[in-house]
Amino acid sequence: MNINRDTLIKTVRETGGRLTKRGLVRELGLSGDQRKDLRILLKELTEDGTFIRTDRRTYRLADSLPDVMVLQVDHIDDQGDLIGHPARWEGNGKPPSIIIKDKKNHPKSKSATSGLGIGDRALFRISKQHDMFYGEIIKTLGEGPRRQLGVIIKGGRGWRVRPVEKGARYDHIPGRGQIEHLALNDQDLVLYELTSARHKGNKIAKIIESLGSANHPRSASIISLYAHNIPTGFSADEIAEAKSHALPTLEGKRQDLRDLPLLTIDPDDAKDFDDAIFAHADDNPKNQGGHIVWVAIADVSAYVRPGSALDKGALKRGNSVYLPDRVEPMLPEELSADLCSLKPNVDRACLAVRMQFNAQGDKIGHKFVRGLMKSHARLTYDEAQSVFNPDEGVKTAKAALPVTDILGDIYAAYQAVKIARERRGPLEIDMPERRVKVDAKGNVSSITVRDRFDAHKLVEEFMIQANVSAAQALDHKKADLIYRIHEPPGMEKIQGLADFLPTMNLKWTMGERVTPKRFNRLIERAREKDLAETISMSVLRTQMQAYYTPKNGGHFGLNLTHYAHFTSPIRRYADLIVHRALIKAYNLGEDGLSDEEATRLKEISEHISDTERRAMAAERDAKDRYIASYLQDQIDAEFSGRIAGVTRAGLFVQLDDTGADGFVPARNLGIERFIFDEKSKSLIGADTGGTYKFGRRVQVRLLEVKPIQGGLIFEMLSQPEKGKRPKHTPRTHYRGRSSTGYKGKGKGNRRR
């Protein structure tokens, strides 16, 4: 038969790209000069991008995919589907996105993902339906190359890529020609992947993208955002939608609440205000001594509709991320800082709850209202506290009449609710929270401990009660919602606490029911021994991490049976779901929870639990990097602190003034070997029994600062406490360093 371009393309398409050149000869029945024509056509079609020649020497169309291929899970799309890309893409342009079939998001599919997560690789069977590619899992293969952040270093050994991760010990070599091709400079931040190739034992890094100079003052935030995959910026569709919205009118179920003297009370540096409160004595004769408390929350659901560009973007982000120098908001500023922000003296849409409390502070009723409100004043915590307690806070004109009377009523209601809170006995771990202030140039100007007044506790407790009301209301309606769950500590962690406490002359009896009140009593006993901070840290480490789920499981820390997030829809997607659920359950509008959303609540819950964890990690890392930058001019300075962690490798010390965490390597503690004792959370000298114990106050000297990694290396100045030499430990001596006079030099201090 005659061989031509169209015939060859048709054959390759119909055979699914399975044939080599020899296979095509057989399939087409070619002989003689026809084989030469085939060779010429294959070369032309490959060079012009119509065909792709695979590693197996088969030919397939560039706009098609093989029947079976390895995919790497890349992300979760706006519909909640897992999306994969070819692990190795040989075609032109961007690799195609492939929807991974999964029982979780494709109920009719017979395949399962075997717990695939982002970054995992697997072998898939590929199919195409309505111009969309689908992948059905055959076999999991584990994680593929992970994108990492590094800094380009130019030194005596040439160019290197130095990881920014804490604890990273080795540099990598950039791929050949990449420095020149990407015009990279010394100290540039880059995104890279490690390859399987090596050069003289060093791993080769494939540089993906340059992110600017690591020496920029604001690089700490950039590193943290990229390192934890935090989405930044908004699409043109999101911005257009945000700008198109206007304030809703008073129609339908929306009520006029503008006469209620609602107030916002927030930190002095708050950029958005999503909650307002008001309280007064209950005039119902059947509830003498009781109070009415209103909590009004920005009605974000009026603007962010299910399935819209704003909704898809908000779900992708999951929550806002708060870094020392910036906020990466969940919603564009047109909403988060304007239309949804409860600014004073302007009309704003809200979803409000009216709660009724008796004289003992117990909530005896609640009602949800969708309305139009007007904040009567914007107060800071300091300003509110100056009214609650004139000896605290700052006095300003804002705290003058008539706001003073309103605050007085709010405080009276809180005093009653506070009594009920004390009876309930939630977990009370009051650890100092440090605030890193960054100036306009991106440099740290100060690190302070946040004050915690009654004003903070008042707002916090009213928000908790509003969250409880939302969960109870929706549970009563048997409605779909996302709960905020905090499980009790596991027995293994409780056993660890029980083993540790006798070293502090305290006791925890196993077998008794574990409750928040028991932990509170333990902390109070520790306070009598000046050990409150140490024991609080220990108790905190026994706690499970809270998460979102459509199945109720209660909140251990708050000692509540029903809890959901309702009060911050500007910055948390979970709250937006709860708002929509309330709107649907109470018929408050046409923009309630959609049926499609209701079927995906488990998947949405898992996703926003993940985004919350990554946000917390990014916030913590950015703070560590800024603090390290703040301290880099204080090498050899001495600091007081507390041992906040003990491992075989050494001691983690938290400084008193800044809250900075640094590390004292065990090899620098002295000339003897130190042994890790897990029960007492101590390092114990093998020869002398000298002990460094978790929670102990110590003096340290700063030896090394790594601003990019956010790492600090200390020298221990405090001598170990006297103790017993561990049993069954031979007296083994080796060359080491004394714990004084260490100058940070020598083989042990070099990057390896």
Task: Report what the structure shows.
The protein has 752 residues and is of the alpha+beta class. It has 6 domains: 5-61, no CATH class; 68-143, OB fold (Dihydrolipoamide Acetyltransferase, E2P); 147-215, Beta Barrel (OB fold (Dihydrolipoamide Acetyltransferase, E2P)), CATH 2.40.50; 236-484 and 550-618, no CATH class; 488-543; 632-749, Beta Barrel (OB fold (Dihydrolipoamide Acetyltransferase, E2P)), CATH 2.40.50. 28% of the residues lie in helices and 27% in strands. It has 17 helices and 33 strands. The protein has a 5-stranded mixed beta barrel. A hairpin with a 5-residue loop joins strand 27 (650-655) and strand 28 (661-665). Helix 5 packs antiparallel against helix 17, helix 11 crosses helix 15 and helix 13 (516-528) runs antiparallel to helix 14 (532-542). It is globular and about 105 Å long. The N and C termini lie far apart (66 Å).
Helix content: 25-40%
> Which spans have pLDDT < 50 for at least 5 consecutive residues?
103-114, 731-752
Helix count, DSSP H or I runs of 4 or more residues:
17
**Termini separation (Å)?**
66 Å
Oligomer: single chain
Tell me the radius of gyration.
31 Å
What structural class do helix, strand and pairing data support?
alpha+beta
- Count the domains: 6
Q: Which percent range describes the beta-strand content?
A: 25-35%
Average pLDDT for all residues: 87
Give the biggest sheet: 5 strands, mixed, barrel
Shape: globular
Strand numbers in spatial order across the main sheet: 3-4-5-7-6
List how many beta strands DSSP finds: 33
